């Protein structure tokens, strides 16, 4: 008999296994939307409103999955990044507004979704209008909004230990982030250290640094063109909705050949091959003429 | 519990239930995390999804975690499998309702809202008070055996609840607590609430009420925002009565013609995170809902237990399975002994329930493993023989086939006993189907 003394097995039974697959930690989702005035003008792109339609369904789904789930929506334009909506702050203010405006909604979850969607959409519109009015075309770098998102998330995770975070970047056309290379990579590494997956929905031209962001943090990087317009909700819900706690059990959609190119710290040009300072690890296109590192001033042999 | 109850419902009833978006949202929240992702993958798919393509995402269906997710989805009848084309799709009614819910489609599901608002902390307190007075009643009915007399004020209970408790077999004929009742006391609050509500449902059929109708009402209640008042007068007659009885239980708060959901019925974590804080730590009162669960029990490896509580209910519950050595104004010192544990075990409480109770109220990290093991060993002492209905697999043609099949049985957590020499193994009846399927695939 193999089961003469199964005391140890009996004791172990039902402890780790069940808990691991049942335990349902809640998650905090931060969505970063690129709202640059000329980011969504390209004809071959899906229109911003089409994307937002799918995005609101996706956000509703996130809130539906778990009653402790929370989310924040960030928008950024040339004027900078701003939190457009956050469940951590919205509750009280929204209620007060409702009473002021005399709105009496039927309070089921579906009504809450609707209310929430309207609030998100109106603040997005406001931010777009603001950029149009001032006619600015500032930095399109994702580093600023990303660090805002991470700090927002970090505060919540610290408050509530069962909370896990993930971030979705909705990216439009606009140049790559060469100019803010160091800042961008630092935020990506921060996300990696916090265990926060960065998902990317790219509606513009391929972006190598966002690919790297997804790759380093076990997120997904997907590119969408006009032909995907109809199935957008499906892509959003099936890929980006996977909660961080589940990710280790599933195979996420990832890009097989990630463009790992870096940027020269001095000339800000994108490099395939370059020199690396052996002291501070900064990347250079060519060795400076004075044989000194431009960042840490180490003297080379 | 709720999911176990839903599993027993026939297809026709489930279809009726799934026609309600609120019901689908509550059911969705009940699922294990991976199952939720699977639902989301299928929800907006335009055609049935091939099994193989889903397996690419979840890993093979035979692997432990995804097997669990898939079997839950199947037993709740959410997932439909087409054997001929090897594809999967969601239950059509479930898919339609969930799409409606997420796209904010129009439903006539809401109640009439009044605009009146009540603080969530007040509601939580109201619920706790009602619920604990009921638990107190149950505990005090067993008081004589626990040498704790004088502890309880005689509580009077509403006859409706009293009847519900005795019909649910939580209280016996002489209004004394049964072994089911003991187990009930140790369960998490969420489980307790739903256990009682399901008993209510079972009784409803006898009272000429439609169980699906009530269940739908509960689900709608489960998707209400806490603290928002709803008009009673807008409800049909059957539901008006339901609301008054739920108010007695502390599930809804009723004032004049307005009712409020007092707890989140769709939130399985409500116990550990929100209520526990306001229940046991007086400092948590009014400081918002973000207070982390602070356990009040400390268990040491020398079998001593310290509980910082003055609640008669908690003291009585602790008295069920440990012997109490000393009591102070806000501190209780007890000790686990073989005797005290066996007393609890023989009254029908299981080791797992004790451990779960301690775990959810323990302060600072996990319980000492020695204590956990010892409680389990005390239980094993009691049942040296185990009887299980099941199916014996034998007469395998080759060792290779035997190993493959028995390993599969082990992977899905079904293996009870095996003997490699004679190539036989034993599994419970419910898993036999999975294994036969696996054998058929193999050959």
Give a structural overview.
The complex is a heterodimer of chains A (301) and B (443). Chain A has two domains: 25-249, von Willebrand factor, type A domain (Rossmann fold), CATH 3.40.50.410; 261-301, no CATH class. Helix content of chain A is 40%, strand content 16%. Chain A has helices at 7-12, 16-22, 48-65, 87-101, 109-134, 143-159, 181-194, 208-216, 232-240, and strands at 27-34, 70-77, 80-86, 164-171, 198-202, 221-223, 262-263, 270-271, 275-276, 283-284. In chain A, the strands form three sheets. A six-stranded mixed sheet of chain A has the order 3-2-1-4-5-6, sandwiched between helices. Chain A has a two-stranded antiparallel sheet with strand order 7-8. A two-stranded antiparallel sheet of chain A has the order 9-10. In chain A, a hairpin with a 6-residue loop joins strand 9 and strand 10 (283-284). Chain A starts with 6 loop residues before the first helix and ends in a 17-residue tail after the last strand. Chain B has 443 residues and is an alpha+beta fold. Chain B has four domains: 2-102, Arc Repressor Mutant, subunit A, CATH 1.10.10; 113-261, no CATH class; 297-382, no CATH class; 390-442, Alpha-Beta Plaits (2-Layer Sandwich). Helices cover 52% and strands 12% of the residues of chain B. Chain B contains 20 helices and 14 strands. Chain B has a four-stranded antiparallel sheet. The chains are: A alpha/beta (301), B alpha+beta (443). Chain B: Keywords: DNA damage, DNA repair, Nucleus, Transcription, Transcription regulation. Chain B: GO terms for molecular function: ATPase activator activity; double-stranded DNA binding. Chain B: It is found in: Nucleus.
């Amino acid at each position: 008999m193999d089961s003469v003394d199964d005391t140890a097995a009996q004791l172990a039974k039902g402890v780790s296994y069940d808990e691991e697959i049942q335990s349902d930690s809640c998650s905090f989702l931060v969505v970063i939307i690129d709202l640059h005035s000329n980011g969504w003008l390209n004809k071959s792109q899906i229109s911003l409103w089409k994307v937002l339609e799918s995005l609101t369904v996706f956000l509703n789904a996130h809130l539906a999955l778990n009653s402790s789930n929370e989310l924040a929506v960030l928008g950024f334009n040339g004027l900078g990044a701003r939190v457009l909506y956050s469940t951590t702050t919205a509750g009280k203010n929204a209620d007060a507004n409702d009473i002021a405006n005399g709105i009496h909604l039927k309070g089921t979850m579906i009504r809450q979704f609707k209310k929430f969607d309207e609030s998100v959409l109106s603040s997005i519109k406001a931010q777009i209008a603001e950029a149009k009015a001032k006619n600015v075309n500032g930095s399109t770098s994702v580093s600023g909004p990303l660090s805002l998102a991470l700090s927002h998330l970090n505060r919540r995770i610290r408050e509530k230990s069962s909370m896990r975070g993930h971030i979705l970047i909705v990216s439009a056309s606009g140049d790559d982030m060469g100019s803010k290379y160091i800042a961008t990579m630092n935020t990506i590494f921060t996300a990696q250290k916090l265990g926060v997956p960065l998902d990317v929905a790219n509606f513009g031209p391929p972006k190598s640094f966002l690919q790297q962001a997804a790759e380093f943090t076990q997120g997904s990087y997907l590119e969408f063109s006009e032909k995907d317009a109809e199935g957008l909700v499906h892509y959003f819900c099936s890929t980006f909705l996977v909660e961080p706690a589940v990710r280790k059990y599933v195979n996420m959609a990832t890009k097989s050949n990630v463009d790992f190119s870096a940027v020269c710290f001095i000339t800000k040009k994108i490099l395939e091959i370059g020199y690396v300072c052996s002291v501070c690890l900064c990347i250079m296109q060519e060795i400076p003429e004075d044989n000194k590192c431009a960042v840490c001033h180490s003297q080379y042999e | 519990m709720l999911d176990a109850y839903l599993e027993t419902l026939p297809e026709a009833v489930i279809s009726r239930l799934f026609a309600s978006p609120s019901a689908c949202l509550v059911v969705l929240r009940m699922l294990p995390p991976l199952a939720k992702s699977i639902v989301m993958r299928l929800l907006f798919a335009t055609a049935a999804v091939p099994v193989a393509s889903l397996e690419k995402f979840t890993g093979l269906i035979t692997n432990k975690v995804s097997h669990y997710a898939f079997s839950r989805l199947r037993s709740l009848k959410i997932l439909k499998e087409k054997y001929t084309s090897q594809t999967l799709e969601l239950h059509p009614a479930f898919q339609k309702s969930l799409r409606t819910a997420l796209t904010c489609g129009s439903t006539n599901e809401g109640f009439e809202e009044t605009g009146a608002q009540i603080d969530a902390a007040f509601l939580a307190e109201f619920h706790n008070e009602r619920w604990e007075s009921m638990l107190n009643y149950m505990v005090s009915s067993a008081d004589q055996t626990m040498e704790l007399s004088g502890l309880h004020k005689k509580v009077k209970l509403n006859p409706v609840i009293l009847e519900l408790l005795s019909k649910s077999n939580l209280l016996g004929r002489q209004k004394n607590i049964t072994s089911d009742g003991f187990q009930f006391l140790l369960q998490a609050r969420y489980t307790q609430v739903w256990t009682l509500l399901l008993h209510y449902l079972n009784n409803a059929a006898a009272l000429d009420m439609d169980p699906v109708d009530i269940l739908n009402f509960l689900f709608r209640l489960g998707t209400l925002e806490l603290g928002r008042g709803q008009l009673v007068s807008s409800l049909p007659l059957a539901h008006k009565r339901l609301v008054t009885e739920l108010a007695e239980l502390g599930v809804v708060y009723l004032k004049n013609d307005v009712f409020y959901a007092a707890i989140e019925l769709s939130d399985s974590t409500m116990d550990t995170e929100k209520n526990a804080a306001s229940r046991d730590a007086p400092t948590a009162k009014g400081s918002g809902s973000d207070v982390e669960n602070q356990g009040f029990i400390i268990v040491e490896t020398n079998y001593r237990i310290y509980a910082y509580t003055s609640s008669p209910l908690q003291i009585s519950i602790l008295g069920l399975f440990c012997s109490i050595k000393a009591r102070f104004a806000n501190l209780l010192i007890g000790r686990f002994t073989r005797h005290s544990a066996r007393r609890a075990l023989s009254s029908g409480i299981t080791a797992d329930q004790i451990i779960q109770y301690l775990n959810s109220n323990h302060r600072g990290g996990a319980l000492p493993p020695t204590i956990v093991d010892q409680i389990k060993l005390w239980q094993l002492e009691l049942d040296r023989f185990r009887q299980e209905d099941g199916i014996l697999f034998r007469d395998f043609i080759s060792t290779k086939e035997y190993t493959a099949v028995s390993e599969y049985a082990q992977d899905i957590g079904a293996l009870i006993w095996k003997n490699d020499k004679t190539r036989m193994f034993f599994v419970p009846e419910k898993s036999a189907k999975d294994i036969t399927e696996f054998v058929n695939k193999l050959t």
